[in-house]
Design brief:
With 287 residues, this protein is an alpha+beta fold. Helices cover 40% and strands 19% of the residues. The protein is globular and about 55 Å long. InterPro entries: ADP-ribosyltransferase_ARG (IPR050999), ART (IPR000768).
């Protein structure tokens, strides 16, 4: 612990000695993102699907940003509907909604994901993206299975925050983290912290993005990385991460609250069996 504390003190001292502009950028220590809502829905996908139609009535119709992003994504997917896909239609549209540039749904969504795991109550009462979280998680799982579970070397640029970490530390992003297979494109999103990442659970979503030239790979919130190195170039941090494992604090949380109070639930195995669109009103929504 003494070595860890000393290393952090030395790092902060070094950062404080550089330009005043650099000092204005917030510094944040990476960790396992303990407040993240990281449900993988293992063994309950089919049961969860049955709940989502009613659940989505409130989420979709009371969140203007969510509704606008979904409508744009649905229209975009319709223009590409000749594409073959391993995804269900609503999963593909969810990925496209996540990548919409305006409104910036992904920012509001990820901010909520990072905090919704504080407690079961926080998720159940205050997290209003339960449907989107489920669809994105299922979409990444389906794409991961279809690509033979390959690993990818990607890059993630971040502006406005300087992340710090210790070599050998285990960390998670704790959100759906966008990255790119193109280093130059990743740098356009920021260079205050620049990650080089080997992800084994993130998947390419180029076919499902508004901006397919970005060569985006989407990393799930539950993937664990080992910190390989941390260096500094001028006023920027450079962090190299390597996939290590996955970890979820939550599993099937919505169903546990609704169905398992008075009976035993087994979510140890199984997956969705339905391959048909779930909600006509979602898929055909119009402005």
């Amino acid at each position: 612990m003494e070595h860890l504390a000393l290393g952090l003190v030395q790092l902060l001292g070094m950062l404080a000695s550089v330009s005043p502009m650099f000092q204005k950028v917030p510094i944040m220590e990476m960790d396992m993102a303990p407040n993240s809502f990281d449900d993988q829905y293992k063994g309950c996908s089919d049961k969860m699907e049955k709940e989502l139609k009613e659940l989505n009535r409130t989420e979709f119709y009371t969140n203007k940003m969510y509704a606008e992003a979904w409508i744009k994504a649905n229209a975009k997917w319709q223009s590409r509907k000749s594409q073959s896909s391993v995804l269900k239609r609503e999963q593909a549209i969810a990925l496209m909604a996540y990548t919409v540039d305006r409104p910036l749904l992904y920012k509001e969504f990820n901010a909520a994901v990072r905090e919704a795991g504080r407690s079961p109550e926080e998720y159940l009462l205050n997290f209003h993206f339960k449907v989107l979280h489920f669809l994105l998680t299922e979409a990444l799982r389906a794409l991961w299975d279809a690509q033979s579970r390959r690993c990818h070397n990607v890059y993630r640029g971040v502006g406005g925050i300087i992340f710090t970490a210790q070599r050998g530390q285990s960390v998670r992003f704790g959100q759906f983290a966008s990255s790119s297979q193109d280093k130059k494109r990743a740098k356009k999103f920021g260079t205050d912290t620049f990650f080089s990442v080997k992800t084994c659970y993130g998947v390419p979503i180029r076919k499902f993005s508004f901006f397919n030239k970005e060569k985006e790979v989407l990393i799930p919130p539950f993937e664990i990385f080992e910190v390989i190195s941390v260096t500094h170039e001028g006023n920027s941090a450079r962090i190299k991460l390597r996939s290590k494992d996955v970890y979820s604090k939550y599993n099937c949380e919505f169903l546990k609250e609704k169905q398992c109070k008075n009976q035993t639930c087994d979510f140890s195995a199984g997956q969705s069996v339905s391959r048909y669109p779930l909600w006509g009103f979602l898929l055909t929504a119009k402005a």
